[in-house]
Design a protein that fits this description.
The chain is mainly beta. It has 2 domains: about 30 residues, no CATH class; about 130 residues, no CATH class. The chain is about 15% helix and about 40% strand. The protein contains 1 helix and 14 strands. Strand 3 and strand 4 form a beta hairpin. The longest helix has 28 residues. It starts with about 45 loop residues before the first helix and ends with a strand.
């Protein structure tokens, strides 16, 4: 018989191979290099740490936003924009307000800046970029129009103006001397002063009275 380890012939009555010392009937395990180094494990993500950081960031953001909100809520809902120095005021119209200082009227903007100086006995609100001005001497009144820069487009006393809240809303205003007609924003007469009375222009039409009767004219 042969040694199962080295392959040399051996006597059957021998317990061990005389060549390699292997026990008869067994095979010595092959000599292979073995290491006790632990197997490398795949890298794993520390989800708990990431989740913890996310919670901290979210909580910080909530705290910041809450602080901004409560700061905004604590701020006053108003702010003083124009000093208390006027004797009378009117509402803002087209960004300007009529205000009285002493015994004269002018206009200021929303920052309180004087746009039209205080030199008129009375002024009306802006409409269509124009405002009526008026001077009164106790007996007679003189009227005119200014633009938003304060320029007198229609000088005081040029016409008697038919005052209404929609003056120049359609780009024209009704005026009279002995008869009535309409002017545009340049002060030019676009409807001759031929009528006994004129009304408000609306939708391109204006009511007029002629020889005691009313009708309408179309204004281009």
């Amino acid at each position: 018989m042969f040694c199962t380890n080295c392959g040399n012939p051996v006597n059957e009555d021998k317990a061990f191979c005389i060549n390699c010392g292997n026990k008869i009937g067994t095979k010595e395990p092959s000599k292979q290099t073995q290491t006790n180094a632990p197997a490398k494990l795949p890298k794993t993500v520390n989800k708990a740490a990431i989740n913890g950081k996310s919670v901290v960031v979210a909580a910080s953001l909530v705290i910041v936003l809450a602080g901004v909100f409560f700061y905004w809520k604590s701020m006053p809902a108003y702010a003083e924009a124009v000093p208390y120095k006027y004797d009378d005021v009117d509402i803002f119209s087209e960004g300007l307000a009529a205000v009285k200082f002493g015994d004269k009227w002018g206009f200021i903007n929303k920052s309180g800046k004087e746009i039209v100086s205080f030199k008129y006995n009375f002024v009306y609100n802006f409409s269509g970029g124009m405002a009526m001005i008026e001077e009164y001497d106790g007996h007679d009144s003189a009227q005119g129009f200014i633009d938003k820069s304060g320029k007198e487009v229609v000088p005081l006393g040029t016409y008697h103006i038919i005052q209404n809240e929609r003056m120049f809303s359609a780009g024209i205003a009704a005026v009279c001397i002995s008869k009535c007609g309409f002017i545009n924003k340049l002060g030019k007469e676009i409807v001759p002063l031929n009528y006994d009375m004129v009304g408000i222009s609306s939708e391109g039409m204006a009511a007029v009275r002629f020889d005691g009767k009313w009708g309408f004219i179309r204004i281009k």
